Input
Amino acid sequence: MIIVMRYGASEEDILRVIEQVERSGCEAHLDRGVERTIIGVRSGRHDLSPESFQRLPGVADAVRILKPYKLASREFHPSFTRIGLGRFEINEASFGVIAGPCSVESREQITETAKAVKAAGAHALRGGAFKPRSSPYAFQGFGEEGLKWLLCAGQEAELPVVTEVMHPGNIEMVARYADVLQIGARNMQNYDLLKEVASVGKPVFLKRGMAARVEDLLLSAEYLLDGGCGQVILCERGIRTFETATRNTMDIAAVPVLKKLTHLPVFVDPSHAAGYSDYVMPLALAAAAAGADGIMVEVHPNPAEARSDGPQSLTFPSFAELMESCRRVAQVVGRQV
Ligand code: PEP
Ligand code: MN
Output
């Protein structure tokens, strides 16, 4: 439920509402907008009636949120959720870039990549140590050793690191190295994993499942928010359609749809959407033009020799070029890279 305060409601009115919410055993979230103040009521399994709040002084209205996801909705939290990525902040005027190889392959490979993406202007380093591969015979990642290399490379280049966690039993270990925990497309609906990851207290980068609707993605985000993780970054990474010219079909419309429905940052991963490096630049620019808050891009020192996702990985020079073009497009839509 949300309680909308009247324009000019006093502090006393706001406090009275919050007290009544808390007396009912629920949590109140105050969102002071420029035009109106909203109190989101996190009622969980309690059934609170809006009528009991509508008559309080200073209250304009109290209404139930009808969508199946509540905490993730714009109604509950009208203002954008800003999230820090090291010294960089994902906000309404910024365009974040997370870049790095699909897999962490060696200390040298990740260190070299970290330096190159940092020099080109990236804000965070990505790299997988636990890889969700479609084939059991494919390279599965270096595990904890890979995490150590990733963390060192991030520290040397002064970049926060983003890496995937696949198993609830590994969360604690991955969280020791990562600044942001990634939930991959294949695990978007692994609800036990989501519940456990939510309690870590670090931002989560949640990728859309390849056969998940926007609403499914938001419901997965709801698991994280309900579990106590307020810092969730959503990522459109392409969905399965009948089209095979690209690896997946990038659902560009998901960007404005998500921006309308939720207060959480929306990123796009043009690399996994495209599957081929030639298409990564135009898709990344489309994401920026459509209003995305940032992108995640795969970059490798030598894509031809990558142990995973080489065909879609950018070389260092092509990543630098992509950054330059992103800067120009982001500026057109009022953002800074
Ligand atoms: C990845 O980011 O390396 C990855 C495996 O992506 P996805 O989960 O979107 O397939
Ligand atoms: Mn990959």
The CA atoms of residues 83 and 90 lie 5 Å apart. The pocket of phosphoenolpyruvate (ligand 1) is lined by residues 102, 128, 132, 184-186, 207, 237, 269, 272 (CB under 6 Å). The chain has two domains: 2-63, 83-332.
